[in-house]
Amino acid sequence: MAKNNLSMTERYRVQPGAKVHLRDVDPDDTGPYRQKDDAKADLERDRDRLFDLQEILYAQAQHSLLIVLQAMDTGGKDGTISHVMGGVNPQGCQVASFKQPTPEELSHDFLWRIHKHTPARGQITIFNRSHYEDVLVVRVHNLVPEPVWRQRYNQINEFEELLADQGGTTILKFFLHISRAEQKERLQARLDDPTKQWKFSTGDLKERAYWDDYTAAYEDALTRCSTKVAPWFVVPADRKWYRNVVVARIIVEALEGLGLRYPEPEPGLDQVVIED
Fold first, then answer.
1. Does 272 reside within a domain?
2. What are the tens digits of pLDDT across the range 183-196?
3. Exposure pattern of 186-221 as b/e (b: 16+ CB <10 Å)?
4. Which parts of 56-123 are beta strand (E)?
5. Quick one: which of 22, 64, 71, 182 could link to 178 by a disulfide (CB 3.0–4.6 Å)?
């Protein structure tokens, strides 16, 4: 998908208008690294840098960041949040998870429940699943007619453009790309470990049977909804450590590109004397 001399952003970004074929992306790719230890220092550097950038983002309160995480079951959304974002100040970062819509949510347009969770200026919000479920699971399981979900691609693009233009929101969307074989190993690991069995659901096996249908749905979403203001990134995720390296680096590159800086202090602070 890219050459080693490209940045992580360039390497894994889906260019607007490019047709995505997930079979062309190796989920076991580790880029310039041969093993986990080779990447450890880079990941720690970017985690430290992310901490600093988030502090400035919060203080300046002019920009916001929306991170969208999508994946097949066991793809690593929770792990990504923990290992990449675990060090940031929770005062300026929140996670929103989107499960099956409630009756109240179904009585509104499909973006209603999403919009109220988007980040305010100075904030980072992470979507663990997102509005893209409405062109994924609803398509695979025929929950709405095809003409309905097909028009949602344009509606999503317009919604994300609104967030970028009016809300000052930088949008980064990550598809954590794992292989079918890796998913089987992760499901088996959950089944075998008593401390992880709570994460296992027989429903995951039913969804696994729709692997090809979900692949086709993801390919269309990635193709139709990777835009200049809201790009998709296809992140190789069979190796959890490399997934973390890629996501951290892309987030840091995006925040560094905003030219963040602390607000100017009020004038005359050099004359302030704090009495005993």
1. no
2. 999 999 999 999 99
3. bbeebeeeeeeeeebeeebeebbeeeeebbebbbbb
4. 64-71, 93-97
5. 182
